[in-house]
Structures are given as structure tokens and as C-alpha cells.
Amino acid sequence: MGNSTSFEETKNAIHDKVEEEIARRMMLQREIQMAVNVARARDNIHIFGSLWLTLTTGVSVAKLAGRSVPHIAGVPIVVGGILLGNLADMAYGNKLARINKEAAYLLENERARFVPFPQAPFARFYSAGERAIFYDKATAVGDLAPFSMVSRSFVPKES
Fold first, then answer.
1. This prediction's pTM
2. Tens place of pLDDT for every residue, the chain, 159 residues?
3. Of 8, 44, 46, 154, which one is least surrounded by beta carbons within 10 A?
4. Rounded distance between C-alpha atoms, residue 141 and residue 151, angstroms
5. Taking Cα atoms as reference points, which of 65, 31, 2 lies closest to residue 10?
6. Radius of gyration for the alpha carbons in the chain, expressed in angstroms and rounded
């Protein structure tokens, strides 16, 4: 009997180590993806921030020189400033932490939003109650007007 207990302990220890290794790899993959997203945001700030700054400087210099500047030139300056502020929040602020907190809330309180289509191999892990909240009530995109009149007619039907 001592061997079966030892065997079970060894089996459980191996299982725990495998689970820990899988979790570590998932953590590393998540960190890599997050780092790439932040790096992409910083790159976009450098590119679009330079363009926005050039536009803003040009319009400002023209105005200071007494030249006529179309009023529509203010639109990309305002909109660009707002968009760059949002991007800067992602690249240098705490937007990623706020997004993570919202994601944690969604996973904890609104898990039913993530019910996959029935053919997904992991669909069986969602309950019928979770499926009924959003998935069962939803309409397929191809069935929504006005495209429902034509969208399904392009797909050949089985004979």
C-alpha cells in the first residue's frame, strides 16, 4: 500500500509542476502581448504625434503671420489632440491597468458575454443559463437588415 500512496503523491507533484509551467508560459505570453501593445502605442505616438505637431505648428504660424487659415483646419487639430491623448494614456499612462480591471470585472460578472458558437471545442464548458443570456438571443449578422436581403443569397446552397 505504501507504493500506491507514493505513486499518487508523485503523480500529484508532477501534475502540479506541469500546471505551474503552463501558467508561467501563459503569463509570459500575456506579458509579451501587453508589451507589444504598449510599444505599438508608443510608435504610433511618435509617428502621428509628429504629423499632428507639424500641422498644429503650421496652422499656428500661418495664423500668427496674419494669413487666412480655413476654419476646417481646426478639426484635425482638435480631433488629433484627443486621439493622441488617448494613445498617450495607453503608452505612458495607466490605461492598461484600467482596461485590465474592467476585463477582470467582465470575467467575474459578465462571463456570459464570452459564450462561443456551439462548434467551438470549449463550448461545453458554458452552461445553458450562460448561453441563454446573450448568445441565444442574438441574431446572426447576415440575418440583420438591410443586408439580410442579399447576404445569404451569395452562398451556394447544398443540392
1. 0.67
2. 557 789 899 999 999 999 999 999 999 999 999 999 999 999 999 999 999 999 999 999 999 999 999 999 999 999 999 999 999 999 999 999 999 999 999 999 999 999 999 999 999 999 999 999 988 898 888 888 887 777 777 767 776
3. 154
4. 9
5. 2
6. 27
